Amino acid sequence: MFKERLLTPGPTIIPQKVLQAMELPMLHHRSEVFKKELLKACDGIRWLLSWDNNPLFLACSGTGALEASVLNVCKPGDTIITVNGGVFGARWAQIAERLQLKAHEIQVEWGSPVTEDQVVAAVTQHPEARAFCIQHSETSTTVLHPVERIVRKVKELSPSMLTLVDGISACATTPVPGDTTTIDIFIAGSQKALMLPPGLSVVALSERAWKAVEETPRRSLYFDFLLERKSLLSGETSWTPTSTLIVGLNAAIEMFKAEGLEAMYTRHRTLSRMCHIGIQTLGCKLLATDAPCPSVTGFLPPNGIDADKVRNEVRTSYSIRLAGGQGAFKGKILRIGHMGFVDPFDVLAGVTAIGLTLNKLGASTDVAKATSAMTLEMGK
Known about the structure:
The model has no long low-confidence stretch (mean pLDDT 97). This protein has helices at 16-22, 32-49, 62-73, 87-98, 116-125, 147-157, 207-215, 225-232, 243-259, 261-281, 307-318, 344-360, 367-378, and strands at residues 5-6, 56-58, 79-84, 102-107, 131-135, 137-138, 143-144, 162-166, 185-189, 201-205, 285-286, 296-300, 320-321, 323-324, 334-337. Strand 6 and strand 7 (143-144) form a beta hairpin. Helix 2 crosses helix 9 and helix 12 (344-360) packs antiparallel against helix 13 (367-378). The chain folds into two domains: 16-257, Aspartate Aminotransferase, domain 2, CATH 3.40.640.10; 260-378, Aspartate Aminotransferase, domain 1, CATH 3.90.1150. It is α/β, with parallel strands linked by helices and 380 residues long. Strands 2-10-9-8-5-3-4 form a seven-stranded mixed beta sheet, with helices on both faces. It has 13 helices and 15 strands.
């Protein structure tokens, strides 16, 4: 018998402390008790992001928050610049099409980060663009874009251009890549390193972004940021919130504070390095070698080994759930999530199971060598 381990890049493992908080009797979302929980969550997110303004809490997945963010600062006919380096980078343009915007996509090779030269060329070519949209971590390709450097450059070239950062799979694994002087909207999601079930999105706006919201025609009722800000002044949300997830979020932030931000970021870097060392020792090829993200590792199995067979066998024989590829990488790669409530022994178990499975499928890997190398890295 093996205990089940969820090593996917979302949803992720939920700690017992968070589960227990969410199992408490249901709170009415207009009660004084819940208002305290909501305002506590605002304080916690401001601490986590080092953000001055209160965030908004939306009852939707991350894609809903991306769409809501674009919708609230752009009007039909506006141009946006997007970084398309994977499945989620492509989503910005899909949203733009539905909202009758013009999207100029910076096409980035999957598995590589966007370059400053590419960004400079795009912003110079489209100075009229209302917003620049980018993922911090592109989960589908396991790349961490150099967002801090990129958004600073965007602001240098075009101070009025809004910067929208999808931090959904990076938040709480690595520092927020900037502050309100360089990032106008930062988006996070519950089912990643925030260690919660899916369904809650967090949107933090700068004062510049709020001014843009006020100037943009309101075209949505549910996703009206001005309504949400007004409701928050009374300690409420405009619509029925994900009350249980907000209570769970407060428990998760208590865990973050107990660990400490720097220790949390160090742990994720260690997990990432352990995973890279183990996977490469097994003879697999890493996907993102130039800019790997600390939340998930992508790799190609040895030649002749089917990625989906590896994933299915690891789940069936060892009760460890990995993720497969998406889009152009579907059926070609495997991804190991190591964000949130994951420790070094979870990663050791995951990579060991992969090595044993590769051998079962005909490869020749030295599992003991891989685990030994990972253990040495863990002890540093």
